[in-house]
Amino acid sequence: MRQNLDKFATFVLKLILPVLAFAIPLFFLPITPNFFDYNKIYLIYLLASISLIAWTVRIIARKRVHLTLTPATIPLLALSVTYILSSIIQSPTVLLSLLGRTSLIISLVIIFIAVTTTQKNEKVISSTIVSLLFSFLILSVISLLQYLDLIQIREKNFSLIGGIFPYLIVAITLLPGSIYLVFKSKNLFAKIFYIVFTTLTTVTAISQINLILTSGQPFTWPYLPFSVGWAIAIDTLKSVRTAILGTGPENFLSTFTRLRPASMNLSTLWNIRFANSSNELFNIISTTGILGGIFWLSAIIKTLGKARKSTLSPHFIFSFITLLTSFVISLIVPANVVLLSIIFISLTLTCLYLKLSGDSNTKDITLNLFTTSTPSTAKEYEQLPIEKSSINQILVIFFSLPCIILLITFWYFSGRAYAASLATFQAIELINTNAGASYEKQALAYTLDPYNPSYRINFSQTSLGLANSLATNKELSDQDKNNISQLIQQAIREAKNAASLDPKSVISWENLAYIYSQLTNFAEGAIDWTIASYNQAILLDPTNPNLRLSLGGIFYSLQDYDSAIKLFGQTIDLKPDWPNAHYNLASAYIGNKNIKKAVEEMRIVVQLIDPNSSDYQKAQNELTDLEKQLPKEPVQPATGATSSQKDNIELVPPTPLPSQPATNINLPETSGPEIPI
Predict the structure, then answer these.
(1) To 10 degrees, the CA torsion angle through 448, 452, 453, 459?
(2) Are the C-beta atoms of 605 and 582 separated by less than 8 Å?
């Protein structure tokens, strides 16, 4: 019985890596808001869980704890511990962080250790390489057929891997190794396969590049600029705590908004909030600190260093080349789920080859309760008898029991999180056709995953939208008034809950400020709450001109033109080439009866707007009207901001407060924001 369990568990572990290699580029499910990465992550969770169960069964069957130590094993274990500590100590949303990047890294490490420990033949390596290349070949064929209009899944730039850039990244990662196999493979059928893969992938990559060049839009690098990622990573090292453990996994967005340099406002990326750094190394350093960066580099560089001295089959060289190229690319762009998986797959294959070659730094150890034995070879390990000592069975129990508890706990929380994502997707699908059902699905989402602030934000906005919809009725019944009151209180409560769950998230505070701003004529005190929430958002995103523009608009609507002028001026200091900021400042000067200053700002607006835009004539007419109100003086040219590229941006005046509703709302005293110290 034990031998059968042992063989079955070993067989299952033999399939894990090929299945991962084949599925990870192609797998996606259109049932969650994030079609691609989210479902790929859960696929990795599933394979890691199966690996851990099979490895545990193998340990129980053999009654000994066996582990293969490769050059990457200890650094990867240390990296996993670092992610866990950083999530617990540094992240404001601990559970969200643990179930995000931390669980992904741990899952890939579990697959790495389980496979390198239990496998010892080259078939696993060759089947994994073929599975990976065949999967990406299918992906290339689909993308090429779409480009040629022979099939149509969605728009031309749609890709099962998540887009054009993700496709190009993986293509560049795999092509050097496949080119090597074309020349070194001795099997005719294998050589033909590698030639077909290399040719089709190259042609498809060229077609995808052509889509970018012929899109009619100027090329924009879709990732955070290197200089900004470097600056943020360096800033996290200035505090001892963040230098050691970073700011927490899944927390780069908050780190970015807090440390983003003002110079970004002069680029085309000024209005984008980035959830990842410029590359994977900067991402790891920013979120898990120096420890994370050291262990990540150590695992890969030590393996590459040992593998460089070995010469085995072409598959080994392919694994080495792919590990090297994927690592280099991760130093250029942040690693998405596919690239990260390829790094771990190639790392696993390389370490398996080191194990097969008898590398002195790759050892099999068997843990006993009082001693540790180290068989010199894999064959010697296999010849060890099944342990019958009752003392050592205790060690097996101590190892197996925590694994079982860990899996049950993990899948309880991650299962609820996935169910919440399903409910959110259903809510999005229903929002335009059945608002009530969408409302119920959103309520279900935050009930299933109460620690995720994004679900609270969604629910608060939907509650407010329903309240506004009811309030538009000309004749309100007492029940309608009661429903409006409850919906508004619910919107405030959930917006506050989101800010409480993640007090470092500017998105949560921006949402809370928006909710309050829509209630300024409904409830007493809402205007003060709006200002307080915007101030907190500005504190968390100090170089964001949008926030100051919005807060300035609030003061403008209150006819507090001095405060509005101050905030619009700060907006222009942060982004001097933004026409709408100058336009809002001109409006505030008009309200303050300072026509001369208003004219100066409107002249700048005219300078910055593209003459071919719809707003140019509007701005020109307003400038002419203002100039007529000036005393007769020589007209001075504008000396304000200049832009090397005229912006075609709609001019939007300061947003007025909502109109007076049919009824006022009495809100509880606890409705105000809770500003953290």
Answers:
(1) -20
(2) yes
Closest CA to 287 of 105, 536, 155: 105
| 574 vs 318: CA distance, rounded Å | 49
In the chain, the amino acid numbered 432 is: N
Distance, CA of 347 to CA of 335 (rounded, Å): 15
Q: Can you tell me the distance from the alpha carbon of 308 to that of 325, in angstroms, rounded to the nearest whole number?
A: 14
Find, among 480, 500, 503, 504, the residue nearest to 492 by Cα.
500
**Whole-number CA gyration radius for the chain:** 30
Query: Cα–Cα distance between 461 and 453 in angstroms, integer?
Result: 13
Distance of alpha carbon 5 from its chain centroid, rounded? 40
At 311, the pLDDT band (50, 70, 90 cuts) reads low
Which residue, among 293, 325, 344, has the nearest Cα to 112 in the 3D structure?
344
**CA of residue 313 relative to chain centroid, distance:** 38
Residue 129 structure tokens: 């390489």
User: Model pTM?
Assistant: 0.90
Q: How far apart are CA 178 and CA 201, in angstroms?
A: 10
Query: What per-residue confidence (pLDDT) applies to 644?
Result: 46
The amino acid at 393: Q
For residue 565, the SS3 value is: helix
Q: What is the 3-state secondary structure (H, E, C) of 2-66?
A: HHHHHHHHHHHHHHHHHHHHHHHHHCCCCCCCCCCHHHHHHHHHHHHHHHHHHHHHHHHHHCCEE
Question: CA end-to-end span of the chain, whole Å?
Answer: 62
The secondary structure of the chain in percent helix, strand, coil, rounded to multiples of 5, reads 70, 0, 30
* Weakest-pLDDT range from 42-46, 70-74, 277-281, 378-382: 378-382
Torsions phi, psi for 368 (to 5 deg): -110, 170
Measured over the CA atoms of residue 537, residue 539, residue 540 and residue 544, the dihedral's sign is positive
Six token digits for residue 260? 């983003």
Model confidence pLDDT, tens digit, residues 491-550: 999 999 999 999 999 999 999 999 999 888 777 888 999 999 999 999 999 999 999 999
Contact 108, 340 (CB under 8 A): yes
DSSP for 90-111, written as a single string? T-SSHHHHIIIIIHHHHHHHHH
Calculate mean pLDDT across residues 391-401. 70
Confidence class of residue 629 from pLDDT cuts 50, 70 and 90?
Answer: confident
Q: What does the chain come to in residues? A: 677
Helix, strand, or coil (residue 648): coil
For residues 446 and 459, the answer to whether their CB atoms sit within 8 Å is yes
Task: Give 550-567 pLDDT, tens digit per residue.
Answer: 999 999 999 999 999 999
Angle subtended by helix axes 73-89 and 103-118, to nearest 10:
160
Instruction: For residues 365 and 629, give the distance between their C-alpha atoms in angstroms, rounded to a whole number.
Output: 89
* Residue 67 DSSP SS3: strand
3-state secondary structure of 239: coil
Which three-class secondary structure string do you get for 444-493? HHHHHCCCCHHHHHHHHHHHHHHHHHHHCCCCCCHHHHHHHHHHHHHHHH
- Provide the token pair at 480: 């309608």
Residue 59's nearest CA partner among 124, 113, 128 is 113
Handedness of CA 637, 641, 647, 648 (dihedral sign): negative
Closest CA to 534 of 518, 511, 556, 501: 511
